[in-house]
């Protein structure tokens, strides 16, 4: 069944959650000028019809870890099986089938250099059905992470955004070290960013006040942020594409800033590799993708080459949920 189109209030609720995934419905309602019950009903409906979920995510840079984008070209008929196996791994952020169904792309966040090397240089390289492995280390994000696409929807007024946006993370002197309680807290929030304090207490074995303090510390330190997962079809974003841009080094920053401002772009980052900027973007149709490539990408100074791949199917989006 197709998901119903979203109305302006739906979009306002979604953008409010993108700004602060744990904002109480009462606070969102006060900013939007509606009742608490209206916001709660909209959220439940969006959850049921557009699979909207708030997820707690970690900024790997703040933990001193690297994020990788990996492309795996496979023999025919095994890409889907490989994608399913990768989706079940806790160190994958997302997994997609691209390029005619013979290529798998995934975002990976290995917790250590040892885990990275075991995966990239051992397991994947020794899998006979995988023909090539290309790994891009994320160097500098231009857009994405805590800057979710819904903030570009302009459903909220500037004053409403200001009222809902939490304070910016504090600058850090070095990587944050997580203890067992933090790990347990984050594990729950990765599957439900709006988990109650009671649920977080049960998972961590800590008091309510201790959970509140640690939750605030992780957020103010920029380690924890919240993203909104949802079906894109109700927003008219049926075509998903990955762009692999080869950009002159002198133009990297300017091109990255331009891409971040494009409403079509959901993610853009400088990476290692011949293609040194990776972009994820969504469009209403292939024709709109063509227009974007010719009229927005084509005019940016410093771009030497562009490879475009359509995402055929999203196997995993931000977190693995086998019941979805």
TrEMBL record:
<dbReference type="InterPro" id="IPR036390">
    <property type="entry name" value="WH_DNA-bd_sf"/>
</dbReference>
<feature type="domain" description="HTH asnC-type">
    <location>
        <begin position="6"/>
        <end position="47"/>
    </location>
</feature>
<feature type="domain" description="Transcription regulator AsnC/Lrp ligand binding">
    <location>
        <begin position="245"/>
        <end position="314"/>
    </location>
</feature>
<dbReference type="InterPro" id="IPR000485">
    <property type="entry name" value="AsnC-type_HTH_dom"/>
</dbReference>
<dbReference type="InterPro" id="IPR019888">
    <property type="entry name" value="Tscrpt_reg_AsnC-like"/>
</dbReference>
<keyword id="KW-0804">Transcription</keyword>
<keyword id="KW-0238">DNA-binding</keyword>
<protein>
    <submittedName>
        <fullName>Lrp/AsnC family transcriptional regulator</fullName>
    </submittedName>
</protein>
<dbReference type="InterPro" id="IPR019887">
    <property type="entry name" value="Tscrpt_reg_AsnC/Lrp_C"/>
</dbReference>
<feature type="domain" description="HTH asnC-type">
    <location>
        <begin position="178"/>
        <end position="219"/>
    </location>
</feature>
<keyword id="KW-0805">Transcription regulation</keyword>
<dbReference type="Pfam" id="PF13404">
    <property type="entry name" value="HTH_AsnC-type"/>
</dbReference>
<dbReference type="InterPro" id="IPR011008">
    <property type="entry name" value="Dimeric_a/b-barrel"/>
</dbReference>
<dbReference type="Pfam" id="PF01037">
    <property type="entry name" value="AsnC_trans_reg"/>
</dbReference>
<dbReference type="InterPro" id="IPR036388">
    <property type="entry name" value="WH-like_DNA-bd_sf"/>
</dbReference>
């Amino acid at each position: 069944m197709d998901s119903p189109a979203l109305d302006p209030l739906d979009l306002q609720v979604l953008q409010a959650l993108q700004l602060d995934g744990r904002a109480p419905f009462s606070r969102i309602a006060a900013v939007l000028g509606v009742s608490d019950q209206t916001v709660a009903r909209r959220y439940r409906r969006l959850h049921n019809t557009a699979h909207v979920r708030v997820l707690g995510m970690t900024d790997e840079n703040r933990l001193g870890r690297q994020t990788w984008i990996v492309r795996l070209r496979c023999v025919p008929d095994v890409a889907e099986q490989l994608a399913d196996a990768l989706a079940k791994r806790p160190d994958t952020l997302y997994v997609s089938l691209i390029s005619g169904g013979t290529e798998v792309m995934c975002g990976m966040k290995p917790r250590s250099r040892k885990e990275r090397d075991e995966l990239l240089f051992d397991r994947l390289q020794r899998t006979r059905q995988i023909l090539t492995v290309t790994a891009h280390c994320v160097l500098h994000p231009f857009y994405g992470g805590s800057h979710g696409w819904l903030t570009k929807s302009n459903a909220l007024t500037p004053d409403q955004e200001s009222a809902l946006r939490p304070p910016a993370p504090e600058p850090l002197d070095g990587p944050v070290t997580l203890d067992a309680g933090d790990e347990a807290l984050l594990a729950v929030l990765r599957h439900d960013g709006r988990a109650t304090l009671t649920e977080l207490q049960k998972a961590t074995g800590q008091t309510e006040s201790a959970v509140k303090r640690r939750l605030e510390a992780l957020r103010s330190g920029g380690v924890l942020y919240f993203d909104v997962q949802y079906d894109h079809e109700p927003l008219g974003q049926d075509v998903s594409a990955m762009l692999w841009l080869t950009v002159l080094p002198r133009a990297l920053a300017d091109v990255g800033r331009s891409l971040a401002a494009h409403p079509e772009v959901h993610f853009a980052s400088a990476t290692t590799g011949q293609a040194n900027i990776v972009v994820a973007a969504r469009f209403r149709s292939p024709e709109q993708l063509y227009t974007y490539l010719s009229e927005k990408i084509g005019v940016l100074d410093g771009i030497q080459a562009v490879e475009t791949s359509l995402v055929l199917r999203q196997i995993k989006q931000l977190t693995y949920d086998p019941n979805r």
